[in-house]
């Protein structure tokens, strides 16, 4: 196996995973299998040294010497030195020093980095560098903290909707204030940020908006309409995500909405029942499809069941495995995945229920800890 | 000029800038100069259509037809369909339909996308697609909203430090609670999130920690030590950033700290004085260097003035122009840049003062609206 090379900031999940470092600017990781060399500027050197002290198999390398050499060479040619691109040249110089001629970089590597490395005579292959799909105990503990934040925020929104009065035009009112998507989102975010989680995007859509699965949602929420709340916060300290969705309704739902919700719940249960180490992801998706087909719910390009059943969660909100129709990936114990069927019709609105679960050898452990209830 | 091609989510600044859309998943933009084609899946089609309704020069294209064709072709070969990579194939198919043989992609394009397009016979050049450095009035208004959030958070932290008592071991105490980096950060974040801003990273370092410019900071803050607060929030709704830093001290600073702070203030003023449309960025940096040299502050690899003087701010926290030693970019009216000199010594700690200003034809307009005061 060729050496692995990463040029990225810690926002890149592979970089975070491979180094454990939280660094804002791009830096370099060379993983030879025997050792992981972390190449940083003087700006990060002290911090990186301290963070990796005592961790086996790491070596922190100050790249200022290489940087200066490249800067000088470029100034002679009158070219501008740009940081994003100089890193690839530094990596190339270091690889040559170590007599490494070929590397594998992630498919998400920057095109400019790959191009520059190739120009410098390095052979570059593209592949996934690290399989992060099976989580360690420590990772699951970190994800549970994010779960706790998500659950608190979700419970708070549910409590507000439940405790609100029905005012003019059936609009919900809570403590004298109109209950809007924005209002609930602000409440939820306050609780998340107190728990060191961020959530720039947060779906709280309702009524016809909810018929579009990715619609963020806005405006006054009314009694009787579906309210889809999809929360996916990320820990600002560790970078781990959690993902969960509930669909609720203040007051009595229409028969059509009730039926649609019951179908999604049954489909989610059917999907969850298939979750177990050794199962192909497609099997889970098809269990969901079967329920919808049996209940007579049709899917077109724009309505019905128009997304996949789930995905892995970890240092990325969407990561392997992917649970869709033709999914051939085989579940392993320790994977953390979502099961999130939904039905979307313009006339009724959307319904989605999403739990994040830990795959085990005998089934799964539900991490979501929040009841599924339609009517509040 | 070849057509511009982007395959990215709206978190990519060029994509956000070129389309104005806020879409979580990757999608495709083809900008032929005459028209901007936005290629999305059915999941985003309705939203994208509504968001771009009435905007001239845009056309939203549903790419499901291409996607299905690729999926089928791949299934025949037994390969897995992966979303990140299928987008490049969709783009290639669409380019062929339009008889476009060459495109320019950003240097930050994903390597896998470039590789796949090249395999499909498309010529791909790498370049910056859009020059975002000169801001429109609307952009500046959006940045001012983020500024308002940053200023409120900064003022709150300053007020807490100022209003705190000096307790055991000179540690600051506010309303019975120890004043730590974490405590201030949580307070600041609450105010930011109320204003729809996120700030996953936020420097509140103090004492010897502050000698490392990128140290996030932690633990109990003491009287007499430098406290470096670097706030760079981002609007969750518009994606714009703002950037500002203040260095303060509760109680009397040491003579060394006072001198260091005065030098940084003078250097910042000297830098600001040079800001004007038509000036090369290097001129600004050298004005800062001159002050430090005259005052006898030395710079080594790890101590002194170890970073550049500033950068553009907008849809990225660091964007063009870059204000450093050899900076040859010429300032233009409408650019929004930081001027942020600092001095870092292990024995004293760090001092940094950072203002974000709008470049004008005659000088600059300071957007920062926060006094520079050392002793609180």
Features:
alpha+beta; Creatine Amidinohydrolase; Creatine Amidinohydrolase, Chain A, domain 1; homodimer; six-stranded mixed beta sheet; 376 residues
Write the layout of secondary structure elements.
2 copies of one chain form a homodimer.
Chain A: E1 3-8, H1 13-19, E2 27-31, E3 36-40, H2 42-52, E4 58-62, H3 64-77, H4 83-97, E5 102-105, H5 111-119, E6 123-126, H6 137-163, E7 165-166, E8 172-174, E9 177-178, H7 181-194, E10 197-198, E11 203-206, E12 227-231, E13 234-235, E14 244-248, H8 255-274, H9 281-294, E15 310-312, E16 319-323, E17 336-339, E18 342-345, E19 349-352, E20 355-359, E21 364-366
Parallel strand pairs in A: 1-5, 3-4, 5-6
Antiparallel strand pairs in A: 1-2, 2-3, 7-8, 8-9, 10-13, 11-12, 12-14, 15-16, 17-20, 18-19, 20-21
Put the structure in a nutshell.
The structure is a homodimer of 376-residue chains. Chain A is α+β, with helices and mostly antiparallel strands and 376 residues long.
What does this structure look like?
- 2 copies of one chain form a homodimer.
- Chain A is 35% helix and 22% strand.
- Chain A is α+β, with helices and mostly antiparallel strands.
- The first copy, chain A, folds into 2 domains: 124 residues, Creatine Amidinohydrolase, Chain A, domain 1 (3-Layer(aba) Sandwich); 230 residues, Creatine Amidinohydrolase (Alpha-Beta Complex), CATH 3.90.230.
- In chain A, the strands form 7 sheets. A 6-stranded mixed beta sheet of chain A has the order 4-3-2-1-5-6, with helices on both faces.
- Chain A is elongated, with a radius of gyration of 24 Å.
- Chains A and B meet through helix 2, helix 4, helix 5 and helix 7 of A and helix 2, helix 4, helix 5 and helix 7 of B.
């Amino acid at each position: 196996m060729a050496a692995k090379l990463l040029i990225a900031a810690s926002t890149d999940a592979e970089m975070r995973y491979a180094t454990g470092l939280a660094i804002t600017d791009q830096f370099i990781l060379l993983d030879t299998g025997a050792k992981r060399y972390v190449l940083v500027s003087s700006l990060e050197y002290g911090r990186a040294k301290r963070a990796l002290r005592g961790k086996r198999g790491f070596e922190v390398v100050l790249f200022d010497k290489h940087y200066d050499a490249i800067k000088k060479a470029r100034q002679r040619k009158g070219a501008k030195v740009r940081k994003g691109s100089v890193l690839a040249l530094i990596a190339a110089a270091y690889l040559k020093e170590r007599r490494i001629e070929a590397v594998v970089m992630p498919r998400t590597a920057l095109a400019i980095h790959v191009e520059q490395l190739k120009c410098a005579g390095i052979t570059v292959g593209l592949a996934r560098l690290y399989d992060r799909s099976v989580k360690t105990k420590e990772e699951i503990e970190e994800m549970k903290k994010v779960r706790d934040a998500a659950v608190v925020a979700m419970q708070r929104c549910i409590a507000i909707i439940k405790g609100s009065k029905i005012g003019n035009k059936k609009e919900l009112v809570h403590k004298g204030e109109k209950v809007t998507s924005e209002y609930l989102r602000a409440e939820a975010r306050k609780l998340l940020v107190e728990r060191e989680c961020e959530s720039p995007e947060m779906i709280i859509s309702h009524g016809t908006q909810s018929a579009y699965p990715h619609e963020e949602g806005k405006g006054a929420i009314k009694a009787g309409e579906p309210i889809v709340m999809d929360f996916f916060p990320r820990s600002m300290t560790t970078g781990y995500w959690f993902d969960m969705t509930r669909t609720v309704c203040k007051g009595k739902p229409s028969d059509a909405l009730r039926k649609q919700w019951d179908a999604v719940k049954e489909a989610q249960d059917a999907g969850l029942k298939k979750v177990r180490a050794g199962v192909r992801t497609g099997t889970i998706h098809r269990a969901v499809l079967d329920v919808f087909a049996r209940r007579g719910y049709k899917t077109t390009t724009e309505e019905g069941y128009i997304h996949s059943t789930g995905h892995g969660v970890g240092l990325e909100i969407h990561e392997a495995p992917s649970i869709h129709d033709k999914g051939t990936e085989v579940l392993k114990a320790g994977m953390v995945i979502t099961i999130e069927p939904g039905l979307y019709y313009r006339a009724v609105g959307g319904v989605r229920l999403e739990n994040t679960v830990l795959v085990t050898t005998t089934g799964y452990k539900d991490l979501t800890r929040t009841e599924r209830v339609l009517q509040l």
